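Marked as duplicate of an earlier ticket. Keeping the data here for the record.
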Amino acid sequence: MKRVMLLASLLVLVVTSAAAQDLASFEKRTSMRKLDNGLTVIITERRDAPVFSYATFVNTGSAQEVPGITGLAHMFEHMAFKGSDRIGSKDWPAEQKALAKVEEAYAAYDRANRAATNRDEEEVKRLDKAWKDAIAEADNLMENDQFSEIVDRAGGVGMNAYTSSDVTAYFFSLPSNRFELWAYMESERFRQPVFRQFYKERDVVMEERRMRTESSPVGRLVEEFLATAFTAHPYGFPGVGWPSDLHSFSATDAAEFAKKYYVPSNMVIAIVGDVSPAEAWPVIDKYFGRLPKAPQPDTLRTVEPEQKAERLVILRDPAQPVYLEGYHRPSSLHPDNATYDVISMLMSSGRTSRLYKSLVRDKKIAANSAGFNGFPGEKYPNLFTFFGFTTPGHTPDELAAGIAEEIERLKTEDVPEAELQSVKTRVKAGLLRQLASNSGLAENLANYQTLRGDWRELFREVERIDKVTAADIKRVANTTFKPSNRTVGKIESTPKGAAK
């Protein structure tokens, strides 16, 4: 035991020292500016290879949606690859008119299609055809995938994006001698986004929903689970959107969403790699300074009310039984956030974690079991969630009992010092490993600057984790893991064809 504790202590010392050195080192190599229009840009020099990576974070995700436009944040992410008035068009004046015609035709069709009374089926068919004819006309005036092709020809790799409940992020990497091209391209798609092929991409998103949610028992369970756990806050909305919204929102809706949220004061760009700040800042000012200044969007008003009774979701399906339970917890800005991170690692990290050893290795009732933070986001109060997939012959209720035993240990027993130190070391090492690559560091810098207000919080989080005590874990567990604060979801396996 003494040997284990000594090893854990040495690991903590090494990681803590590395963290301190890294922060000092990063501060020397990192510069940050806020442009006149409100855009925040971070540059970290790494001269290991003649390449750089970047991440653009927009401080908006599905939590900024309201009924009627759910899924629109994700939809705009798709649109950001369609170019601008200068990229992706054969004849912009003609295309602009054609796209306006598409919107006029769609608005007429949508009104007729959603009419609650006196619906005229023939008129709906006529307007549907007129709208699709207008789309075909506009498509003839575009250069398909020109934005992506330009980046590819310049040596770009890893081009992608994602939309979460909290943010929308865009990223790729390029050779350093293509920095000015990058600045032009990245600023261009936000300067004047063009919603070409909007309805084709809307169909793509609907197909994503069918694959990930409607055709997936776990996807359906998670959607019902979140809608039950969050009765007021938009974290209860599916990020991909409700089906009716995906069938009805328009490119005009997307343009209004972008005008409100895609403003420089609501964006952070982090650049990491072989980039000289002295040479980069004039380029950044030249291109990103073109983005028009606009007010920062209002903060979200709705706060999820305190849950006062346990909630239950049961999905009966001929699929593998699954168990899920979530407890409301504060946002990532709360002082106890580091404690929640340590609890997550304690319960879930690898074969030494408590849930693995108890439910998977010893009792053999779970094929996999874990607990994790920040579901479905972390900007606002969210869920600490436990889950388990049963092994053959076992039930979700057995997993519930096994998880409850481990939660009770957190509430009543002090975590042994050697186990706690080992867990904290792994949490901190995991954070630091994310900084190894240019792309990983860029994403983390942009993320922490966006959600925590300072990129240095990435390193301060390491320090806060080191201060977590066994008493903190016991206190947080007793405060959070209460039946009245719990939402339970489970898949109960039924024979094919049985009633659901």
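See parent ticket for discussion. The chain has three domains: 35-82+148-288, 90-141, 311-493.
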